[in-house]
Amino acid sequence: MTAWAPALLVRALLVAVVLEFILLRFFLRLGPVLPGEDALLPFYLAVQAGGKLALYVALLAAASLTAVVAARCLGADRSPARAGAGDWLVGGALLAAIVVNLTLGLLEHAVAGPVVLQSVLTIGAVGIVAARGVLQAERGRLVLLLIAGAQAGALVFGLAQALAGLGIGLPAAGTLPFVAEALALGAALVLPWSFGLRPRKSELAIGLVAAVLFFGFHTARPWIAATATMWTVTFTLFLPGVLYAAGLATCLSGLLALRRTPGGGRIAAGLLIVLLAGLKLDFSYFALLSLAGLVVTTGLVAVAAGAHQSVRAGWGRAGSLVTVPE
C-alpha cells in the first residue's frame, strides 16, 4: 500500500467536506434571504452543482479512506497471520459499517430494516474505534469519549426511529438528540484542556471574535441561528447561547493550537471532519463522514500509511495517538 495514499485521501476529504458544507448546507440554505433575480439563476445552479460534486468527492474519499484502513487492519500488505484479534476487530467493524452505509445510500427510500442494521453496525464501529483511540491516547481521552458518546447518541436516535417504524418503541428516545448535542458541546468546551494546549493570543483572539459574533447573532435572531445550525450540523441550540459561544471559542482556538503540536495537524483535521459531519447520522453520508473523521483523529490512518505498523502494537496500552512500530 502506498504510504502517501491515506494522507492524500485525508486532504481530499477535508477540502471536499468544507466545500460541501459552505455551498450546500450553508449558502444554498440562505435561499429565502438571497436575491431572487432571474439573472442570478445560473450562478445558483453552478453553486448547487459545485456543492453536489464536493458531496460526492467527500463521500468517496470518506469511504475509500475508511476502506484503506480496514484493509490494512485485516492484514493487507502483510501476512494475515500477523494480524491480532484487535486488528481483525477494528478492520471488520469498519468494513461492515462502510458496506451497510454505502448500500443504504443507494436505496431510493429509507427502509426500517436496513436503517436498523446501519445504526447497529455504525455504532459498533464508532465504539471500537473510539475505544482503541482512548486506550492508546496520552492526551485527548475525554474529547474522544465525548465525541463517541455524541455519535452513539445520534445513531441510537436513528435506530429508535427505525424501530418505531417496525412497531418497537425505545423509552426516552426523544431525549437522545439533546444528549448527543450536549456531549458534542462538552467535547468542544474541554478540547484545549483535554489535549494540554496553551493557545497563543492570536488563536484566542480568533476564537473570541467568532464567539462574540455568534453570541450577538444568537441573541438578536435566536430562531434564525437555531435554524441555521439545524440545517448545517443538526444542533438545536437548546442550551444557553453563552455555552455555544464558549464552545465555539475553545474549539477554534484549540484546533489552531493543536496544529502546532507533533501529530496535531492530523488530529485537528479529524476533529474538523467530525464537527462538519454533524449529528444527522441516520444519513449514510454523514455517518461515513463522522466515522472517517474518528479514524483520522484516533490515528488509525497512520496505521494504513505505515508498512510496519499494527493496531496490535498499541491495543490495550496507553500510548500516543501515533501508532507504534512493531
Can you tell me about this structure?
The chain has helices at 4-27, 41-73, 85-106, 112-136, 141-165, 176-194, 201-220, 222-233, 241-258, 264-277, 284-298, 300-305. The chain is mostly helical. Helix 4 packs parallel to helix 11 (284-298). The protein is globular and about 55 Å long. The protein starts with a helix and ends in a 21-residue tail after the last helix. Residues 307-326 have low confidence and may be disordered.
Briefly characterize the structure.
The chain has one domain.
Detail the topology: elements first, then pairings.
Layout lengths: L3 H24 L13 H33 L11 H22 L5 H25 L4 H25 L10 H19 L6 H20 L1 H12 L7 H18 L5 H14 L6 H15 L1 H6 L21
Helix pairs in contact: 1-2, 1-10, 2-3, 2-11, 3-4, 3-11, 4-5, 4-11, 5-6, 5-11, 6-9, 7-8, 7-9, 9-10, 10-11
Distance between the termini: 17 Å
Rounded to an integer in angstroms, the radius of gyration calculated over CA atoms is 20 Å
Structural category is mainly alpha
Contiguous low-pLDDT stretches (5 residues minimum) are 307-326
Shape: globular
The percentage helix is over 70%
Counted beta strands: 0
Strand content: under 5%
Overall mean pLDDT stands at 85
Q: Total domains, how many?
A: 1
Count, helices = 12
The succession of helices and strands, N to C, reads: HHHHHHHHHHHH
Largest sheet features: none
